[in-house]
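Tip: read the tokens left to right.
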């Protein structure tokens, strides 16, 4: 059962890891240090000497060994590397035992997982409203969108507050109250702006408000939380149970947003979901990666009481569709877990040549005075 080999693959801007045990069983995982995937790749390869020869069955031991490796340094390069390795080890375990990962995590607490659509943008409130309504017509019952124009850094404070609130109003009026709308701010507001904005849109009953401010400080998020009446969604940049414990105790958000390819893989996110359950917090994971990360999310989702909605991306389009042999079933706004062993999807190595590596490039907006806007 010992680990025999560890390989990494860059497909477009996705980083995939494949682990092979001495019996030839292979498992795949994914890292979501998406801005710097080569950094995470080097970290994964740097773990090879530690991992080769270790019993692949001891996932909990391996997770802690890597987390504490080389004097317990921190950072998303490390946590994303550990996440990818962890997911691959769970995939091996499922294949070895001929069982889906959700079965090994305690079985199902639900038969399907509600998807929350995303990726909506527009220039006018009416355009936002029409795009969200089209998703409703496709069967989705929830959507997450950013009600801010792309050139928001150039807006005055009062105009930004007004335009953003009107977008939320237009969407709510279009889709009615039998549809959940969640607001994503992408860390683009300062605390005082977020307070005014959240209080302004409260009457439109948003499902949650995600990352209204940069996640530089748990205390700052806590101060914001005490001044608004809307549920916050936090944690997509965070890793490990300790950071989420602080969020639970100091911020008391409505939702945790762990990214399974950043926050510690299946092992880490299962524990984060237990922290959430203990504090009556829901899980809506951050997920815009490949079908491998989605499969890992659904594995935990169907076995976690705290899981609520699953971020959805279109996996029928390239390059995502080319990365695996199949994708987790999404129908009428619901994900259905695979009954196949492990993750239920297999890596397509041919996707590496088909979609060469592309370095992510998403620089922050520059304001009129030349300073860097929040991002």
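Filled-in amino acids:
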């Amino acid at each position: 059962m010992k680990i025999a080999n560890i390989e990494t693959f860059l497909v477009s801007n996705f980083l995939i890891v494949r682990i092979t045990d001495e019996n030839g069983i292979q498992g795949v995982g994914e890292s979501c240090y998406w801005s710097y995937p080569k950094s995470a790749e080097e970290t994964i390869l740097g773990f090879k000497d530690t991992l080769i020869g270790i019993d692949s069955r001891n996932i909990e031991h391996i997770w802690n060994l890597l987390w504490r490796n080389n004097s317990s340094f921190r950072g998303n390069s490390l946590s994303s590397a550990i996440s990818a390795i962890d997911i691959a080890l769970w995939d091996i375990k499922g294949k070895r035992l001929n069982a889906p990962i959700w079965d090994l995590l305690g079985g199902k607490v639900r038969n399907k997982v509600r998807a929350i659509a995303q990726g909506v943008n527009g220039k006018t409130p009416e355009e936002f409203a029409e795009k969200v309504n089209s998703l409703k017509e496709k069967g989705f019952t929830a959507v997450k969108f950013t009600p801010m124009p792309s050139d928001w850094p150039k807006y005055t404070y009062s105009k930004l507050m007004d335009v953003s609130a009107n977008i939320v109003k237009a969407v709510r009026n279009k889709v009615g109250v039998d549809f959940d709308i969640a607001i994503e701010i992408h860390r683009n507001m300062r605390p005082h702006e977020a307070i005014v904005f959240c209080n302004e849109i409260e009457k439109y009953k948003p499902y949650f408000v995600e990352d209204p401010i940069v996640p530089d400080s748990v205390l700052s998020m806590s101060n914001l939380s005490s001044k608004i009446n809307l549920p916050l969604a936090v944690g997509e940049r965070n890793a490990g149970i300790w950071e989420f414990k602080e969020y639970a105790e100091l911020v008391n958000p409505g939702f945790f947003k762990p990214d399974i390819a950043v926050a510690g893989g299946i092992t880490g996110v299962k524990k984060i979901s237990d922290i959430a359950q203990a504090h009556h917090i829901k899980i809506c994971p951050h997920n815009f990666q490949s079908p491998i990360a989605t499969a890992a999310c659904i594995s935990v989702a169907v076995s976690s009481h705290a899981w609520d909605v699953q971020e959805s991306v279109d996996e029928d389009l390239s390059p995502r569709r080319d990365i695996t042999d199949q994708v987790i079933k999404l129908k009428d706004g619901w994900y259905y877990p695979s009954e196949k062993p492990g993750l239920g999807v297999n890596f397509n190595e041919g996707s590496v040549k088909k979609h060469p590596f592309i370095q992510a490039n998403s620089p922050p907006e520059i304001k009129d005075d030349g300073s860097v806007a929040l991002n």
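DSSP finds 15 helices and 13 strands in the chain. The two ends are 44 Å apart (CA to CA).
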